[in-house]
Amino acid sequence: MTVHVIGGGLAGLAAAVELARTGIPAVVYEATPRPGGRCRAFHEPALDRVIDNGNHLVLSGNRNVRRYLDLIGARDRLAAPARPGFRFVDLERGREFTVRPNRGRLPWWVLLSGRRVPETRPRDYLALRRLSKAGPEDTVAGVVPPGELYRCLIEPLAVSALNTPADEASARGLWAVVEQTLAKGGSQTIPLIARTDLADTFINPALDYLHRHRVTVRTGMRVKALEFEDDRIVALELDQGTLPLAPDDQVILAVPPAIAARLVPGLTPPDTDEPIVNGHFAIPFKEEPHDIAGIVGGTAHWVFRRPGIASTTVSAARGLVDAPAEELASLLWADVVRAFPDLAGPLPAYRIIKEKRATIRQSPTDEARRPGCPTPYPNLWLAGDWTATGLPATIEGSLLSGFRAADHVRAAGASPGSARKRRVRPASRGRAA
Q1: What is the rounded distance in angstroms from the CA atom of residue 220 to the CA atom of residue 255?
Q2: Per its UniProt record, what SUPFAM superfamilies does this chain match (predicted)?
């Protein structure tokens, strides 16, 4: 049995890494020259810096991130800020505060005014438990009452985790994040930043791991159609030609939802997207700890700082994605300076990156359309942050989807009724629509 992993983003790489760990032969097909999907890094000449295509907030409670980085030997490539907790700069109120959960599960931190959001009371935090009881149609704004806790903590977390405005975002989707992190205490809620860049953390070590385990990663190999017979995939049609599959081969499809819908008959994944705008600014190289700050009432939602570069993220950026880069740079740089006053000065060299289809919209309606990993075709499995992982469309969700797909393949290969026991007639070029 060979497993054909279509798509070299994080979901596809996680699947391939897990297959390699268990000794199952696999081949990865990536349409672009370089694997990584949205988790890319490149040298930007205007800044003379290596920058990430986009910023991603990782938390210490993201267990699939930990599992993946442990497998590829890259756990040490994430750094924690020197300051504990979540630091926020509230531009509307002209103040700065830090939310500092205690390390254990018993949340005594809400009893101390210096650890919680200003102007909130301990009982306000019971709203977090309301998320756990949310129904499938509930939105974050519909479950959590308005107030300082909502404005300064719940809404920023919802928008960044779900890339959807809080009045549209799934309450269950946010609870999936809270349950894994904040509900388990401060030890699981530490923000983590790539020491250098995301590719150096998540992609390059994975490619090295796959190379050591003799997993081939074929770049510039676009799968333009799947050939089906008797409800099975029997061939991949590439730009370079048709690749027949052996009777016991399996396929993991780890591509964006629009491509998956084109390749797989009858698949109707979520088709509404949300944009993200990222701004990257050249700053002096200083031997300072990595840092992160949330912005309340500004243009940016988060500011990430590491030696030589300050980066900003605006999630669910519908109102900004079409604005001129020069205008965005001025607005975002102002937020950088408010978060880190020592950087005050003229607008430095910058790069604005607009991801118009960054993630699916994660409203209750769209959540209901997320498909599971199994398909009606016994040798085809789905992976990607847009599948029904029970998590938002994040790095954590991508990795979980890849691991699950690999688990399904392993179970299918071990099943007495698996494909290796069956014979498949030669293909009749039936293609996906």
Answers
A1: 14
A2: FAD/NAD(P)-binding domain
| Cα 156 to Cα 401: distance, rounded to the nearest angstrom | 25
CA distance 199 to 322: 27
CATH topology of domain 3-38+200-268+364-431: FAD/NAD(P)-binding domain (3.50.50)
- Grouping H, G, I as helix, E, B as strand and the rest as coil, residue 96 is strand
Distance between CA atoms of residues 412 and 123, nearest Å? 49
Condensed to tens digits (0 to 9), the pLDDT of residues 203-227 reads 999 999 999 999 999 999 999 999 9
> Tokens standing for 234?
């029997």
Asked if 200 and 77 touch (Cβ cutoff 8 Å), the reply is yes
In a 13 Å sphere around the CA of 227, the CA atoms on its Cβ side amount to 17
Cβ-contact 39, 203 below 8 angstroms: yes
Q: Give SS3 for 193.
A: strand
Please report, as a single letter, which amino acid is at residue 179. Answer: E
Tens-digit pLDDT profile for residues 121-169: 999 999 999 999 999 999 999 999 999 999 999 999 999 999 999 999 9
Is residue 329 within 8 Å of 352, Cβ to Cβ?
A: yes
Q: How far is CA 296 from CA 148, 293, 333, in A?
A: 11, 10, 15
